[in-house]
Design a protein that fits this description.
Radius of gyration: 24 Å
Oligomer: single chain
Distance between the termini: 34 Å
Structural class: alpha+beta
Shape: globular
Number of domains: 4
CATH superfamily of the largest domain: Dipeptide-binding Protein, Domain 3
Number of helices: 17
Number of strands: 24
CATH topology of the largest domain: Dipeptide-binding Protein, domain 3
CATH class of the largest domain: Alpha Beta
Helix content: 25-40%
Amino acid sequence: MAIWTSRRSLLTGAGGVGVAATLGGCANARIIGFDKARKSLDIANSSEPLSLDPHKATGSWENNIIGNMFIGLTTENEEAEPVPGMAERWEVSEDLLTWTFYLRRATWSDGESCDAHDFEFGFKRIMNPDTLSQYASILYPIKNAQAINTGEMDVEELGVTAIDDLTLEIRLEHPAPYLPQLLKHYTAYPIPKHVHARVGEDWVKAENIQVNGPFILRRWWSNYIIHLERNPNFYDANNVVMEHLYFYPQNDVQAAARKVLSGEAGWATRFPSNQVEVLRRDLPGFVRVSTYLTVNYFSFNMTKPPFDDVRVRQAISMAYDRDFVANQIYKTGETPAYKFVPPGVYNYPSSAAYNWAERPVAERKQEAERLLRAAGYGPNNPLQFAFSHRNTSDNPRVAVVAQNDWNSIAPWVTVELRGVENQVHYANLRAKNFDAGDGGWIGDFNDAKNFLYLFESRTGSQNYPGYNNPRYDGLVHQSDFERDDQARAQLMLQAEQLLLDEAPICTSVFINSTNLVHPDLTGYVDNLEDIHRARWFGIRNA
């Protein structure tokens, strides 16, 4: 006789039994992806997290989970705009270099006070080079942060000080008007100092973790499910409707769509764009397509041949047909990217472009062959390289187009495709373990600096190509100290144009966010950053 159960009973009743053994006796398990009675939501979430430690995470799929567990000094509203979080208010000095944050009284999920000392500890921990944070460079605007993170200065010299339990002072290297946006990012989250003092780096395990946000981690079964439960000690818990969140790693967007179609998920964070019309027909009210502050691009590993030669990088960039990809591979309104910073970034003219952008593709491929021959390649010295790509979303289909474009430059150009899981792929990019590789960058805050800082030599592992140009560094650095918005934008524009001319990357498309969301889930609002915190979710017709 078939045994009917549910995923909820697996989570609560499995005890020490392995997930495979538990599932073996309940193949007919019934899952309700948006259970209004239980106030629970199942989410197809693109990839398996490498970490739920906010100081070690790097991906949007990790942010989707971590951002429901922790709250920074600022946080996101429904539209992903910065609003007061743990800080109720803040003041800025006249020279714009000292920010003073006044915190609300709040606790960790175990009832212990969450205060300014936890934030000071958190900022110093992420900057400590021993933490090995891949994302620490985003916080380099903080006084002495770079010197500390590179081991040149003691961590106690960081410009972050708990004045008292409810007052935190942050001193900056240069004015950063975008700081409230930056501080809602997971790198700026506190961690529970008292738990870390007791168990060290095991603080993030489900049996130890304490959080200051709306949901707490209850169970993490690797490559299967992550269960979050409403945190009754969250300072705004009375206004949190959802009781349970279940995140599934779902690299296959086709499978993610099927989960929603079958009712096993109430939200999928990506769907196959070429099926948008079918999904609109079969899932009325579910399809959400929106402008997205992100760019897809390919990195060239400049630390070794063949991409240590600018002519090779330029040739491969110009031979790629972005228009075909934007119009034929994607079907949700994507636009070809002939620049790096997406359109619509605040206070930025976004007028940089490849100098060959207006030329027809056939003409560009002829020029690409000429450049490659000038670089020494030809029938007697063929150009061969591997193109690594993410196995998620539309990326495998884009990779086939890119391969065909590059192979068609000349018979002696050969490109091998290598599909890799998301988290492994990005680890390879950071380690420079690739020839050419795809990727995407989602704006952490709405400022051109958040895109251009990626290619500063000081950025480290997130500078995937290993681009190192003192002139580029100087332009971006100079823009940090320029107080006039227009003059600052012009400096960054010069830096972006230099980036395009030297081609350490090949821009691809500006993509839109594509989500499948149950129409009875309220509080989900399309926004530029595609960040949607379950704190704001409600239930229509509950």
